[in-house]
Amino acid sequence: MINDMTKGAPVKLLFWFSVPLLIGNVFQQLYNIADIVIVGRTLGMNALASVGAISPIFFFLMFVVVGLTNGFAVITGQRFGAKDTDGVRRSVTVSSVLSVSFTLFFSVVLSLLMKNILVWMNVPSVIYKDAFWYIQIVIAGLIVVNLYNLLASVVRALGDSKTPLYFLIFSSVLNIFLALLFILKFHWGVPGSAVAVVLSQAVSAVMCVFYVKKRFPILHLTKDDWKFAFSKDCTDFALEHLRVGIPMALQFSVLGIGILIIQSVCNTFGPDVIAAVTAALRIEQIATLPMISFGVALAAYTAQNFGANNFSRIRVGVSRSSLINIGLSIVMTLLMHFYGSDIVGIFIGKSETHIISIARSYLLISTMFYFFLGQIFIFRNALQGMGEAFLPLVASIGELLVRSFAAVYLAVKFGYYGVFYSGPIAWVTAGVILAAGYYLNLFKIVKKAHASVRMQRRMQIEAA
Q1: 49-76, pLDDT tens digit by residue?
Q2: Number of domains making up the chain
Q3: How many other CB atoms are there within 10 angstroms of residue 226's CB atom?
Q4: 126 assigned to some structural domain
Q5: Does residue 3 form part of some domain?
Q6: SS3 143
Q7: Is residue 5 included in any domain, yes or no?
Q8: What span, in angstroms and rounded, lies between the C-alpha atoms of 250 and 194?
Q9: Is-contact 300 382, C-beta < 8 A?
Q10: Which ranges constitute the DSSP H helices of 268-310?
Q11: pTM above 0.85, yes or no
Q12: Does 359 fall in a domain?
C-alpha cells in the first residue's frame, strides 16, 4: 500500500514503516545464517571458514547493488512527494535500464578478476576452492539480486515497506530448504549453498514483479515510459539518477572494501579466527538490524518530505530517530554482553570453545560503540533522502581510511584483537563527519528555501 509520509506524526510513521523493514532484514539475514549454520554444522569448520573468508566480497556485491538501487529510488521518492506520477514511472524505467547495464558490466569484470582478488585477500589454500566457486556462483546470479532490490527500493520510496517483506520471507524459507537439499541430499558442498541463495532470490524477484504490476497502478509502465528511458530527452533525467546513485554505490562499495581489508588481515591468523569473525559478524548484523531499518525508513521519509519542501518534518524525524537510537544501542549492547557466547554457540556448536572465545571478544568490543554506528545510519540516510550523496561518500572514504590503517597497524601491535577495534574507531570518525554534514546541509537548504519565499513575496508586492 502506498503511504504518503508528508503528513501525520513522524515517529509513528517511521516506526510502522520500519517494522516490516526490520522483519524483512531479519529474514534477509537468514540467507547468511543458513549458510553459516548449515555449512558449519554439516561440512565442518574449514567449509565454514571458506564461506567466511569470501563473505566480505558477498557483502561488497550486496552493498554496491543496494547503494545503486536505493540511490535511484531517492529520485522516485522525490517525484512521488512532488505528486509527479509521470516522473515516478519514468524514474522506474530509467533506473531499470541503468541498474541492469551496470550490474552486467560489474559482474563480468569481477568474475574475471576473482582469482587475483582471492590471492590478494590471503585466502588459505585449504579453503580456496570452495571459496572461489561459492563467490563465482553468487556473481553469476547478481542480476536477479539487482532486480529484487530495485523493485523493493521503488516500492519503499512510495511508502510501502510491507510488500517486499512478503516475498523476502518466502524466499528466505525457500533458501533454507534448498540449501539443505543441495548440501545434504545432492552433496554439492559449499557451492550448493550459493546456488540456493541465487535461486531463492530469483524466485523472490519474479514474484515481486507480478505482484507490483497487479497491485500498484502508479507503476503500470507504458511504452512511452520505456521509450523515454532510451530517448535522447532523458539524458538529464538519467544524469539526475546517476548523480545520486553512483555516489551511493561508491559509498557502499567503500564500506565493502573496508571489510575486505579487515577480512584479508584476519585471514592471515588462520581458519579459527576466520570462523570466529564470520560468526561474530553475522551476530552483529542481526543486532544492528533495528538501526538499519530505522535508517532506511528515514531515507524514504526524508525523500518524500524533501520533495514536498517540508524541511521542519525532516528535522523532527532525525531528532526523534536519534533518541530511539540511544535506547536501541543500550539494549543491543546489554544483550550481546550477557548472551553473546550462547548465541555464538548456536552458529558453530558449543564444543568450539576457543572459537567462541574469539567471537565473544569481538562482540564485547564492538557493542560499546553501537550508538555511533546507529547515528551513521540516521545521518547518512537523511542526507541521501535529501539528494545529498557527496558528504556520505566523503564520510565513507574517511571510514575506509581509518578502518584500513587501524586494522593493519593494530594487528601488528596487538594481533587479531587489535583488528577488532578498527571498526569502532572508523564508526566514530564517520559519525562525526556525517553529523556535521547533515546540520550544515539542512541549514543551507532551509536558508535557500526562506530566501525563495521572500523573493516570491517581494515579486507579488511589486506586481500588486
Answers
A1: 787 777 778 777 877 887 788 888 888 8
A2: 1
A3: 17
A4: yes
A5: no
A6: helix
A7: no
A8: 25
A9: no
A10: 271-287, 289-307
A11: no
A12: yes
